[in-house]
Specification:
Helices cover 32% and strands 18% of the residues. It has 271 residues and is an alpha/beta fold. The strands form five sheets. The chain has a six-stranded mixed β-sheet, with helices on both faces. Strands 1-2 form a two-stranded antiparallel sheet. A hairpin with a 2-residue loop joins β11 and β12. α5 crosses α7. It starts with a helix and ends in a 14-residue tail after the last helix. About 5% of the residues have low confidence.
Length: 271
């Protein structure tokens, strides 16, 4: 009888010991969870600065574009004081210099570009253009690239076939896109113009999304530079340049932007 009592007592002690161990583990887990929650609450929120207006705000509430932050969609979609468009992919080109003192852009020059020529359907074409404007184009990748090695060219903006916008030069500065040129009797158009490249050529229609993106970009630029007029590269360098070419619809561009016709001094006919 005593033997059975001792056996039951031992079993009871073992049960209580095992139960105690489990409770201890459970308590430890609960304590760890509570500590983690307290630590999470106590960790300070990372504060970032809006690139456009410089206001400080929690990182979790900011809009991130590449490594930049913006406090609102409005500021993301506008030019900052340094002449950079928040929503664009920034790829700074060394091919730039200062505008003449006191000169504010009042002309947009529309171009087309394809690297290699006619090969913009290749998914690498956009990157080739970016590399070209940054003087990083590998000349060994295509015979045409050997022909343009050493050229120092840039534009303020590039609109890819998919509608993505790249910016290479601040609108406050002069990009090297127009070359020898004249606009209504004014020479050296780089001094007072903003260059926009459309990925494409004279043999293929441009994409609808490129027109809509170009219209939006024109509006964003017009908000800062209200006196802008618009022309093609061929208009300011006739006989030397043919872009944006016969495939670019000036009528479609004007319809998408609602620009008054007087802002398009060379008219709406294809050319």
């Amino acid at each position: 009888m005593i033997k059975w009592l001792l056996l039951f007592a031992g079993a009871g002690v073992l049960y209580l010991w095992i139960k105690g161990k489990k409770q201890t583990k459970l308590n430890a887990k609960e304590d760890a969870k509570a500590h983690a929650e307290r630590s999470k609450v106590s960790e300070p929120e990372v504060i970032v600065q809006c690139r456009q207006c410089s206001v400080h705000l929690p990182k979790s509430e900011a809009i991130k574009q590449e490594e930049r932050f913006y406090c609102s969609k409005e500021h993301l979609d506008s030019l900052d004081a340094q002449g950079w468009l928040g929503s664009a992919a920034w790829r700074t080109s060394p091919n730039q210099d200062f505008r003449p003192e006191g000169v504010v852009p009042d002309l947009v020059v529309i171009h087309h570009i394809s690297l290699p020529p006619g090969s913009f359907a290749d998914r690498n074409s956009t990157q080739f253009i970016v590399d070209f404007f940054q003087n990083n184009l590998d000349s060994s990748l295509h015979p045409y690239f050997e022909e343009i090695t050493g050229q120092k060219v840039s534009s303020h903006f590039l609109i890819s076939r998919s509608g993505e916008v790249f910016q290479f030069v601040s609108t406050n500065n002069k990009a090297w896109h127009a070359g020898v040129s004249s606009f209504l009797g004014r020479e050296k158009c780089n001094d007072f113009s903003i260059g926009i490249e459309l990925e494409g050529d004279s043999g293929h229609p441009f994409e609808d999304i490129q027109y809509s993106t170009l219209a939006k970009l024109s509006s964003q630029l017009g908000a800062i530079y209200p006196n802008l007029q618009f022309a093609g590269h061929s208009d300011i360098a006739p006989g030397r340049k043919t872009d944006p070419g016969i495939q670019f619809s000036w009528q479609k561009f004007q319809a998408n932007t609602n620009l008054p016709v007087k802002k398009l001094p060379f008219g709406l006919d294809p050319r």
